[in-house]
Design a protein that fits this description.
The protein has one helix and 25 strands. By secondary structure, the protein is an all-beta fold.
């Protein structure tokens, strides 16, 4: 930190290495949110919400991560995650057609998804209301190994955005800009939560009394708005207790109040999806309300204590929780635009993983395949932070999902631009009959990476995934395609 502050001070005084103009690359992007009701076997209905963040990579062609989950019906805990590609065709000034394809993995909620692979071709008719597009969607949802498919109509909302970034070769340089980069989140926090059910009426999906307590781990990403308002997304999974396989993904809106430069407090509410691990969330819709207090340890680190209530809209689940957050500032939105901004290194990876011998609850060990997404934040001297999410794609473990956080180190270029790296990850995993008792896992990995262009690289890795309490202990093989870019940090 001291080294960084001294560097900025020298640059401010000399202006020797500042860019002469703001040269961030601007790419059109879109937040998309949709709802549709799919038909499961035996004519059962399940309401499903989908969300994606898509960036225009070629004219009219958008690509990015996406996720779907149950919100009505009887399958709370059904989640899939993967990637989506969409082509936007303007029909007139106000009307456009989006046609695309989603490939993901996951499942859960005992929905009969087989190995977990989900395919969703779709076509959306959207009307532009000035940066906000709304309309209808026609889609087919298929689980090839689950031997069922569903065709339906739904509703779709798309919000236009701009993804601002720099080329990878400018990482470490400085420029002057007053705008956010990337998706625009200002803060990311790692969360450890202890949850206790409220009342004797809280049951599992099997009708048994709910466990006395469950521990969760996850993350929260937020963006500061005007007048103390903030919004963001959070995700967590069970890591201790008898609810391994439980996961939740929510959007949040809150307001915070500054008492001085070090202390702030506020309230927030969250709405989204949760379930799995025999937690009775009914159709999956989940809400939270909380109060929090935060102490700023340094300019970039804070410690937050939060307490609140979590409740399913349909189902008996109701709990009081307390969480501890360790937050890191990604951007200072209220900093002066006259200050030079360092371009920080980031990397997005699309990942395919293979567990060679994943232990199952029936005592067997079988291979399985996962699809995943990784987000790496470069620090200094080769070190980086990593957040990852993976879901089952094949291998008879539909419903298995894992969330990981950790840190790694990457070497300088070696022979022929080859780089080596190693990382240590911990997180939560469960579902799909995989024996990750309690949910807490660790995953050390080693990689070799090679650039195929200035920004793109391929990575091959190997490691081990191991449950702290269950029998899951398998070698892991990983093949990833990564995109490196830079984001300004005020």
């Amino acid at each position: 930190m001291l080294k960084r502050l001294l560097s900025v001070s020298l640059l401010l005084s000399s202006q020797a290495y500042a860019e002469s103009s703001d040269t961030l690359i601007q790419k059109p992007a879109a937040f998309k949110l949709g709802f549709e009701t799919i038909t499961l076997p035996n004519n059962e209905s399940m309401g499903m919400v989908g969300g994606s963040y898509l960036i225009e990579t070629l004219p009219g062609l958008y690509l990015g991560p996406a996720a779907y989950g149950a919100i009505t019906g009887e399958r709370g805990g059904f989640f899939t995650g993967g990637g989506e590609i969409t082509y936007r065709l303007p029909i007139s000034k106000e009307i456009s057609i989006d046609t695309g394809f989603y490939l993901g993995g996951g499942g859960g909620g005992a929905a009969g998804v087989g190995g977990g692979m989900m395919l969703r071709p779709h076509i959306d008719l959207l009307w532009d209301f000035g940066g906000i597009r709304a309309g209808i969607s026609a889609s087919e949802v298929r689980f090839p190994s689950g031997h069922f498919s569903s065709r339906q109509l739904g509703v779709m909302l798309s919000v236009d955005d701009t993804f601002s970034y720099s080329d990878a070769n400018r990482i470490g340089q400085y420029l002057s800009t007053g705008s956010r980069g990337g998706v625009g989140f200002d803060r990311i926090a790692v969360i450890a939560t202890q949850s206790k059910p409220q009342g004797h009426s809280v049951k599992t999906t099997y009708g048994a009394p709910a466990p006395d307590s469950t521990s969760y781990a996850g993350f929260l990403m937020t963006q500061s708005l005007n007048h103390g308002w903030l919004w963001g997304v959070e995700a967590a999974g069970a890591v201790k207790g008898s609810s391994d396989g439980y996961a939740e993904v929510l959007g949040t809106l809150g307001r915070e109040y500054m008492f001085n430069s070090s202390l702030r407090a506020g309230t927030r509410a969250a709405l989204g999806m949760g379930g799995g691990g025999a937690v009775d969330t009914g159709g999956g819709a989940l809400g939270k309300a909380a109060v929090f207090a935060a102490y700023q340890i340094s300019r970039d680190l804070d410690l937050t204590l939060e307490t609140g209530l979590s409740r399913a809209f349909d189902g008996s689940f109701s709990a009081r929780y307390t969480s501890l957050q360790i937050g890191m500032t990604l951007d200072h939105p209220h900093a002066s635009s006259d200050i030079l901004n360092r371009i920080e290194g980031w990397e997005w990876d699309a990942s395919a993983q293979h567990y060679t011998s994943a232990a199952r609850r029936d005592g067997s060990k079988r291979s399985m395949q996962n699809i995943g997404f990784k987000l790496n934040r470069k620090i200094d001297n080769g070190f980086y932070l990593s957040g990852q999410a993976h879901s089952a794609l094949d291998g008879g473990a539909g419903g298995y999902s894992v969330g990981l956080i950790g840190a790694g180190w990457e070497s300088p270029e070696l022979i022929g631009k080859l780089r080596l790296s190693a990382e240590m990850l911990v997180g939560a995993a469960g579902g799909g009959g995989v024996d990750s008792d309690g949910g807490a896992i660790m995953q050390p990995m080693a990689y070799a990476s090679y650039p195929i262009s200035n920004n793109w690289q391929v990575k091959a890795g190997a490691g081990v995934v191991k449950s702290f309490k269950g029998e899951l202990n398998s070698p892991v093989l990983d093949l990833s395609l990564g995109y490196k870019f830079g984001l300004p940090r005020r």
